[in-house]
Specification:
11 helices; 2 domains
Amino acid sequence: MLTILDKYILKRYLSTFTVMILLFIPIGITIDVSEKVNKMIENHVPFAAIAEYYLDFTIYFANLLFPIFLFLSIIWFTSKLANNTEIIAILSSGISFTRFLRPYIIGATIVSIFALLMGFFLVPKASEGFNNFRYTYLIGNGQNQIRDNSDVYRQINKEEYIYVSNYNSDSKMAFNFSMERFEKDKLKYKVTAERITWNPKKRNYSLFNYTKRKVGPLGDYIETGSVKDTVFKFDLEDLTPVVYIAETLNYTKLTHFIDKERQRGSSNINVYLVVFYKKFSIPISAFILTIIAVAVSAMKRRGGMGMNLAIGILLAFAFVFLDKVFGVLAEKSSAPPIIAVWIPNLVFGTLAIFLLRNAKR
């Protein structure tokens, strides 16, 4: 049962967080427009596409920066409570600091559930629109950069592997093609070609300057030729997904996509796992940042609200910095993604416990 105190703090918690987002999003849009307006005019971008882009932009960046918005909003209104001696009055009435935290934890629960649902369903759609617009209109040669087309190596099923050195999505052509089939770790079949092209009318592939080798018990059978039409059970375009594909998939599709890419031996599997684990780590950070913000700002300081905000901004950007650093580390190294993604929460969770114990004193 919520008391008058719980309702009062919870209302301030949610309203200040909402106002903080509504204040900063227009600023972000203004800065983005000033940076990209020339590019949009050069490419004759339709107004409807621009309007849709900034709707996606709002959702995308609100989700990306919500820990900072939440942290600063809590410090702001809790510092006002402290400066007005409201917190002293509350604690002097016999309410413990832990009990005082209850409406904050309820607010963090509401925000984290909302962030979790957004990350599962709404943000992927916004991310797709946001990135499609960037690669279509804003990035030079964007359509050729949209896919990871170099040194593509995939396991397409339990027994077959393919490799291409480069894939051109416009011409549906790949170069230095190789396909191998293994049975019980022994090579049974291999096809190589200088290039392979998809024929949409015939629904098959053409191999150019190819070599086909079958490994037999008494000797190998080798076939060579300049051109050969054949059928394969894979789609080259599926094997070269767009670079931001994981961000555009909802929870169910993302789990299936990761399973499929793991079976194919995708070199980008860590990138996809980082996106997956962040869907859970970011909402949990709402609890950690809430506790830190209350512990930092509940005390009345000589510098007033300005000192609390300065400490808050420093800690907020330290959190974002750690999150980015360990995210890149997980994507580019052999570090386990789940550990790298959760390290910022573990570091700041430890800090939250330390600050909370001091605040209680």
